Amino acid sequence: MSGAASDIGVAVVGAGGWGKNHVRNFAALGALRTICDQSEAVRARHAEAYPETTVTAELGRVLEDPAIQAAVVATDAPSHFEVARALLEAGKDVLVEKPLALRGADAERLVALAEERGRVLSVGHLLLFHPVVERLKAIIDAGELGEVLYLVCRRLNLGVVRHEENAWWSLAPHDLSIATYLLGADPTHVAATGGTFLQTDAGIEDVCFATVRYPAGRLAHVHVSWLDPHKTRMTTVVGSKKMAVFDDTSPDQKLRIYDKGAEPLPEAISYEQGVRVRTGDIVVPAVRMAEPLRRECEAFLESVRTRQPSRADGRSGLAVVRALEAGAKSLAEGGREVAVG
Q1: Residues 138 and 191 placed together within one structural domain of the fold
Q2: Is residue 269 pLDDT above 60, yes or no?
Q3: Tell me: the pLDDT tens digits for 276-288?
């Protein structure tokens, strides 16, 4: 079913896997005009579910339709660059699922093209629209945690095993986007190691460990895997005053603030007196939950209306792709630290 008609017409290109969720959300927002997918089975399902929506296999129909002001690219990652470029050149505002592209140079070309044509370019880093991430950002910016020292990001599960990309490219974009947003700066260096256990002939890493450096000496440790017995979606932020944990698998305590810390005592006379450890209360802030993807879609429509970038704009997507590219190079070179960009 569709919601009240929007003033903006949106096409979803790639409506199978994750794209079907974009179809659902833009239909609910009254903005869905066209569904484009190469699969006959996918088109048939959507034609039945959304009979008032145009369903096609031809990207050209999207490019040429003046009733479509904006489009979502939810095709396979290797095609993101070409499809997004065609849409931008046709004068459409574009939301590209993560990653924006598979090469930093291609992501940079998309950003430059969008700016040259005056088009909105957003990237599907939906966790930036998670209410808990928004609340955590506000807590950090208010100085409640003190100076942020480092983050630990863990995204683990048993499956889904990808065949066209490794765990780093598949899972790490979420954590890189969160870390970059929370720290308010782009990564500068990445050192990554990993292991290939399931698809050894293809050399596709199933697990990756990365140290990502940010300005002012701050760090993010990123651990991603689809070969782990535990489903873990956790970000720990360690500050000079307090610490915070975002646990997206927790049903009722997704955000916890720990009044804990440690500080050196410069006038200590013994090793034992050299550091003071402080332990206080644990606070669970009340956060009103909402579907992050719905809020991402709403933010994209708002950017199209106002011509103002969202927090997940093309440049934020470019920063993530550059970090992914540096991490991939580090993986290939046995963990050598690689400069980003």
Answers
A1: yes
A2: no
A3: 788 899 999 999 9
